[in-house]
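Q: I'm writing a short explainer about Ammonium transporter for a general audience and would like to include a description of its predicted shape. Could you first generate the structure from this sequence?
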Amino acid sequence: MELTASDVWTVVAAALVLFMTPGLALFYSGMTRAKSALNMMMMSVISMGLVGVCWVLWGYSMSGGDALIHDIVGSPFNDFGLSATLADGGTNLLSVAFSSTFAIIAVAIISGSIADRARFGAWCIFVPLWLTLVYCPLAFMVWGGGLFGEEGFIGSMFGEAIDFAGGLVIHINAGVAGLILALGFISGIASGWAVGLKYRFGYDDSLDVVGVHLVSGLIGTLALGFIATPATGTAGLFYGGGLGLLVTQTVATLISMAYCAVVTLLIVLPIHRTMGFRVSEKQEIQGIDLAQHAETAYAMSSGTSGAFAKN
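A: Of course. Here's the predicted structure. Afterward I'll give you a sentence or two in plain language.
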């Protein structure tokens, strides 16, 4: 296969997006307590492995192609294990790789809302379930020709929704999931202001996933209804496009938030009721690294690794 300039840039762009996840691991771990840094890094690292495998097996297939549920999600059997992609000569492998990096970072972002307190095993169960039941359907609805696409039910009624860089699929999606995991409430219109709302409303969002990603995603997605230029395909209000795109973006945002909230809750509750999503208060105080990994990121004193902390 001969690579074009566009192909080369796709490779570079995929690498840059993929680098975000180890970068996020370092960023998140640096914002947590020293005795929780290792677990925080591992939540991002394991997300890369789990999402990467699930994306190749069924995630990519579910985010596009023929629908399993009309307008909602693609069939995992369209291209299970990339069988159809490989049979076609692998011409879409770059698309598979590029799209996987967005799925990985979307999941990793959520971990910041439960820093210092989430069981690593519970997180490992949550990741493939959330990818399959939340991320893939929303990716299909927005980017795969589903509900919000030109021929989808909402898209044909209000117009096609625009999402250039994951405002709907990644940031709002991850932000709402983080809010559900934090078990709280959010309001606000700007990230800087919204970060402080967790103290007012009492939801436990450790690293401000809700305030940063959800609120920024909301602003960016809705702003397209005002500032999108005709070159994007649909002009916003400020460029003579009327209210059509703004209505589309608003409807897509509300439906995406509702879907993500409900399905994430349905995933989290059984995990929490069975194996527990949160470590004990004693383990949280002692440090989740020893409790979950029998290891620490920093050796503050002798005998601080090699054995699991007791409950």
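A: For your explainer, you could say: The mean pLDDT is 85.
Q: Perfect, that's easy to follow.
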